[in-house]
Write a structure and sequence with these properties.
GO molecular function: hydrolase activity
Number of domains: 2
Keywords: Hydrolase, Signal
Number of strands: 5
Protein name: Cell wall hydrolase
CATH superfamily of the largest domain: Cell wall hydrolase SleB, domain 1
Length: 193
C-alpha cells in the first residue's frame, strides 16, 4: 500500500512537472533571422501567415536581413487558449463577438508589452486586473463563441490598434485610464492604449 502511494505520488509530480511549460513566452517572442530565411519561410515554421509576421514587425515590404530580430505573435497552448477563453467568457458576457475578440486581443497585447508579465497566465492573474479572477467566475467553462473569439484574436495579432486596457465606464471609474488614448469603442467597453 505504501509502495502504491509512493508510485502514485511520483506519477502525480511527473504529470504536473511536464504538463506546464517551464519557459516563459518572452524566451520565444522573437526570431533572429538567419541567412537564407524569408518572412514566408519563418512564418511557415511558426505556423502563422507571413502577412501577420510582416504586420507584427511594422514592415512595409518583405525585406529582412540576417541578424535582424523579428517579433513573433503569442502562440498559446491549448491550455492557455482555454484559460483565455474562460476569461473572455466571464469578462465579456453579454458583449458582441467583436467585443470578445477585442478583450482577448488586449490580453495578448499585454503578453507582448514590457509593462506586463510575459505569459498569458501571468497577465490574467496579475494583481487585481480582471474581476473574473477575483470573483472566481474564471473557473466556469467557456462557450463556443468565446473559444472562437480567442482563436480569431490569435490570428489578429499585429493588425490591431495595440490596445492594452478596456473597461466599461458605466460600471467602473478609473483616473488612471482617463489619461489613456481610446483606440476603439465596442459595445459598452472602451479600449485604450
Amino acid at each position: 500500500m505504501i509502495r502504491n502511494m509512493l508510485v502514485s505520488g511520483i506519477l502525480s509530480v511527473c504529470f504536473f512537472a511536464f504538463s506546464f511549460p517551464l519557459t516563459s513566452y518572452a524566451e520565444q517572442s522573437t526570431h533572429n533571422v538567419q541567412k537564407g530565411e524569408s518572412l514566408y519561410s519563418i512564418a511557415t515554421d511558426y505556423g502563422i501567415s507571413y502577412k501577420q509576421l510582416q504586420a507584427m514587425n511594422n514592415k512595409s515590404n518583405v525585406t529582412i536581413q540576417p541578424g535582424e530580430s523579428l517579433q513573433l505573435p503569442v502562440l498559446p497552448s491549448s491550455a492557455e487558449k482555454d484559460l483565455l477563453a474562460r476569461l473572455v467568457e466571464a469578462e465579456a458576457k453579454g458583449e458582441s463577438y467583436a467585443g470578445k475578440v477585442a478583450v482577448a486581443t488586449v490580453v495578448l497585447n499585454r503578453v507582448e508589452s514590457s509593462k506586463f508579465p510575459d505569459t498569458l497566465y501571468g497577465v490574467i492573474h496579475d494583481g487585481k486586473q480582471f474581476s473574473p479572477v477575483l470573483n472566481g467566475t474564471i473557473h466556469q467553462p467557456a462557450g463556443e463563441e468565446s473559444k472562437k473569439a480567442v482563436q480569431e484574436a490569435v490570428y489578429y495579432q499585429g493588425y490591431d490598434q495595440e490596445s492594452l486596457f478596456f473597461y466599461n465606464p458605466d460600471k467602473a471609474q478609473s483616473d488612471y485610464l482617463e489619461d489613456k488614448e481610446v483606440t476603439t469603442v465596442i459595445g459598452n467597453h472602451l479600449f485604450l492604449r
